[in-house]
Amino acid sequence: CASSILTALCGGLDSFKLTYSSSCNQISLRQNKSLSESRDEEEIQHVDSGSARSGELKKRRRPVSGSQTDTVKKSIQCDTCGKTFYKNSHLTTHLRVHTGEKPYSCGTCGKGFTVLSALKTHLRTHTGEKPQKINLKIHMRIHTGEKPYSCNTCGKKFSWKSGFRAHLRIHTGERSAQCDTCGKTLQNKYNLTTHQRVHTGEKPYCCDTCGKRFIQKSDLERHVRTHTGEKPFPCSTCGKRFIQTSELQRHVRIHTGEKPYCCNTCGKRFADLSGVMNHMRVHTGEKPYSCSTCGKKFSRKWHLERHSRVHSGEKKKSLQCDTCGKTFDFKSHLIIHMRVHTGEKPYSCNICGKRFSWKSALKTHVRSCTGEKPFCCSICGKRFIQKSHLERHVRIHTGEKPYPCTTCGKRFNQKSELERHIRIHTGEKPHCCNTCGKRFADSSGIIKHMRFHTGEKPYSCSTCGKKFSQPSGLKIHVRIHTGEKPHSCSTCGKRFNQSTHLKKHMRIHTG
């Protein structure tokens, strides 16, 4: 029988793998792939810690009843979550998920891991060693669209084995664990138990420092780093450190410009999965976030949070900038705002190298390098780099000034112009120079002012190469080469290339 053949063969053929074919009732031997390739094929690595828990683990193991074929492929079941394995060592490794045992620890930072492969991956954060080629090979499927796993029943193809295995359950009838509350299906009983905490509100993992509770242990471990300040994942390009690997991976795309996630409807690309998921709602019209008070639906969670304040009467903004006192609804908005004060510019142009504090500013700037002007005025045909520039321009044709000052009644065609104007009445100057303490009413004022301290001259003449700190200085200088003199004396007709020269000349006539 198949089981006796397996027993006879398993005694020393570690370098070979047994394959059982149910279609032709044959058992064949083939040489194993390299270690790196096998990691792609096997989701759970062979790790036998030989720990003192073996007695406890044996109690959790039980054979799975079924046909002879089933016994060959999957013979051992986890009592905790019901997941099945065909090797004792795989179950031993899996049980650490439930027991919390982490027998492999990092000699540099002391962090513990359940499997050796995870420790090896972690060590690269300290050594700077590049990841294995097989990991790159798997990652490249995002870009190439390669789908090496094919379903023999329906022909559907998959890029990753985990997705392929989940799909097979549709045909085999093997039931995944299903949530009775929302109907969602999970891969196993353990994942279902974790998921159900969303509905029950159970948070069994508690932070010893602040008392905050979490659904998953991994969430608690990440949270603890906010107290300890530990940021074990550094960016090899700029040195910035991160609490989570996922944060580092997203950050690295700022430098590489990689956008691996693509919208299947319009082709727009995104740097992270959440970006493409949020974008897809533009096409589908999906609004998954609903107000419990009035029933209004929203496509984004923070839109709902902002709307909820209408009902609660909450007006106070809880997040305040320590430097200028400005308040924000969301922590992410405060973090972005802080770049005004710190001068941090994490976004870099791949064409000219210029750096920016905001992603939107980089996106707009790139168009100035490429010459792209995707927004066109339907009235005069003038084209613009930004949609907001087009909208402002159209108001020149329509004469619309939708933003009125409540103090003096003056109207403006841009909200930013109104905000700057209001500061004339209030005297507010929220932007402060960290070098000399001088204050400014708007961010553009402080940006221009900072160039006096730094000596930065980002605007250069294409004719002679002379550099200027302000675009207005470059504009006036260029007239030396072009001979343009746009300022004319109304008395004698003499022309000048600067308004200050005209004003000086006018004194001849006025005395």
TrEMBL record:
- Which InterPro entries does the entry link to? Znf_C2H2-type (IPR050758), Znf_C2H2_sf (IPR036236), Znf_C2H2_type (IPR013087)
Q: Which superkingdom heads the taxonomic lineage of this protein's source?
A: Eukaryota
What the entry lists under SUPFAM superfamilies is as follows: beta-beta-alpha zinc fingers
Q: Quick one: where is this thing mainly located?
A: nucleus
What is an annotated GO biological process for this record, any one? negative regulation of cell differentiation
Going by the UniProt record, its keywords in alphabetical order are:
DNA-binding, Metal-binding, Nucleus, Repeat, Transcription, Transcription regulation, Zinc, Zinc-finger
Name a GO molecular-function annotation.
DNA binding
The subcellular location is: Nucleus
Would the keyword Oxidoreductase turn up in this protein's UniProt record? Answer: no
Q: Where is the C2H2-type domain?
A: 76-103, 104-131, 149-176, 177-204, 205-232, 233-260, 261-288, 289-316, 319-346, 347-374, 375-402, 403-430, 431-458, 459-486, 487-511
Asked if Transport is a keyword of the record, the answer is no
Q: Where is this region: Disordered?
A: 35-71
| Gene Ontology cellular-component terms listed | nucleus
* Record Gene3D superfamilies: Classic Zinc Finger
Describe the family membership recorded for this protein in Swiss-Prot or TrEMBL: Belongs to the krueppel C2H2-type zinc-finger protein family.
Give the protein's function: May be involved in transcriptional regulation.
Q: What is this protein called?
A: C2H2-type domain-containing protein
